[in-house]
Write a structure and sequence with these properties.
760 residues; alpha+beta; Multidrug efflux transporter AcrB transmembrane fold; Alpha-Beta Plaits; 6-stranded antiparallel sheet; 5-stranded antiparallel sheet; 24 helices; 8% strand; elongated
Amino acid sequence: MRRLGRFLIRRRWFVLAGALVFLVVAGALGGSVEKRLSAGGFNEGSAESSRGAALLEERFHTGTPNVLLLVETEEGDVDAPAVAEVGRRLTDELAAEPAIAEAYSYWSLGGAAPLRGSDGRSALVLGRIPGNEDQVREGIEGMAERYEGEDGPVTVGVGGAAEVFRAISEQAKSDLQKAEALSLPATLVLLLLVFGGVVAAGLPLVVAALAVVGTLLVLRLFTAVTDVSIFALNLTTAMGLGLAIDYSLFIVSRYREELRAGKDVEAALVRTMQTAGRTIAFSALTVAVSLASLLVFPMAYLRSFAYAGTGVVALAGIGAVIVLPALLAVLGRRIDRFALRHRPPTPVGQGVWHRVAVAVMRRPLPVIVVVVALLLVLGGPFLRIELGLPDDRVLTEDAPVRRVNDELRRLFPNNEAGALSVVAEGDVDIDARAEDITDYATRLSEVDGVARVDAVTGFFADGALQAPAIELSERYGNDESTWLSVVPSVEPLSAEGEALVADLRAVPAPFDVLVAGDSADLVDAKETLFARLPIALGIIAVLTFVLLFLMVGSLLVPAKALILNLLSLSATFGAMVWVFQDGHLSGVLDFTPTGVIDVFTPILMFCVAFGLSMDYEVFLLSRIKEEYDVERDNEHAVAVGLERTGRIVTAAALLLALVFIAFATSEVSVVKLIGLGLALAVLVDAFVIRATLVPALMRLAGRANWWAPPRLRRLHLRWGIYEDEPLSVLDLPGAERARHLGGSPGPNDPEEAEWPAGRT
């Protein structure tokens, strides 16, 4: 870092010119990335439900209806001639839409009872747009405007999965723009207060621009080879601004500290790079590792956050340790120009955070007991988390598609649009196997939670044939094979829906079958995520532990960091379950609790929040280790380390939380959950974990904080991150090596095990 600092001073204009060129190129190439991003990516192609849906489309050119027109009348009932005429016309118009592959309705099927509402004044027109999520979203575009509203004696509403997904995507896009408009002015004001001057406050915006615009280019490159979710843009903006503030604040604060210590500009910048620059490099690596673990999941939705997250972290880190020092080299002492205040620095040992650390370390055990108990109580609700998939209820009650789907739940107890498809995997001669198909359909109809089974041989319910085959039944078979439609009487995206899938798959079939549909998607998604989750957690734990060991050279400190992060996140997740699953504060926050949490959200939140928490851990530990290597006094190092970083971590946490809270204003409850959850995670980590548990535990551990077995200590001396030390030093005897490195063997350490673990 010393050599890098001197290089940046000599080549500062070259570096800044290169950054400007990169920003222009990234903006030109990455600015149009939104048009190439996918609205889907939630399913895994090899799952049974995905294969079943693909086979249904390939062999039978059909699938679960994803477009729905709710036709309601106040004049008589749906069988009135005028209403029936409009219903048949709407069916024909929907069938004529270019994106619609098939359409049918209560009227076109001759008065099919399941498509008639319980009030007798409502009925359904069903349609299907084939293709992947992006094709469906493109196909549904504009349909709501064409069909919604009054049409003669009826009122028409547009619902179904396609319109729900379109509405969620559009609302999320609108909410992103609103969040940016809300957070930017408030962030600018806080930047002025935190950095104390106009020039200094502008520096994080430069780093943020490089990180965000550069990540758009990264995502644009990924779209050339794979699907990238449009929701990754939200993470790009939030983390780009947040990490730019974090890293810039750390660099600028250290640079000012070195200037106040009497160093000239060059010496201050070099020392800043040796300390804060090195810390940021470690921090960026730990955050990137946490986000990169999302790559183990096969869903494009989660992998997209890995692409965006690692890209924005890497670029924020590069901007902070390359571009920002070059700017500081140009500014020199003008960093404090247009300062809002000229407050003398607080002498060491007299700051607020120093007093907090001393007070905590005076009674570490009571502090640990009280804080851990509080965090465990907050985390308690997480033990009863229920995971599901989002539906229209993630939107507010006044959203048009939400109103339509609320009516569907009220008037149509059988979930026609949530029907499961049982698809024969191989060839089936429906004439020769008609008896087998009838027997299988009969047994499926006996399963709890099944309202009706439609097959090529008829319609079944409660273990009996309810109606013989009609013209509609021909859609359930062809010359190649057959499939059956299972209409549930339970909510598809619920625990009952999951149980129904398991029961259907357990029914012995006369031929190999695949079960597809919304409930099956949920079951398969959970199975895939839970199978890969231990791998992701293992990657995060092992690589984070190794990185922290390379930084501090001890075993206890990395282990403590991992445990505290888990404790902090469990409290955050417990609070989120209490609010969003149980529905507490739903009126204040304006969302509809459904009793479940989106299955993807906890995994995404964990990886992001864990990385950000470790970010602050690295900031604090690096300064504590720096002080310990100089003074060899554990309590003094902890107190001074917290004093030097407390204000930085607090300010960074408040600014980052502000960005996330702006996203919590979203009208999509999943985005609201992520925004509030990450804001709470950042604040708990900064104000509770770093201010209380870290100093308390480090006080109890004493010198054991810095202990490592002799072999690992020698490994750290060889492979740990130091400043410009020659490898030949490692061949010296223990005491001489320690003196050469600027330290001394610990009083209780054997000479060859020697020097304390690591140095700055």
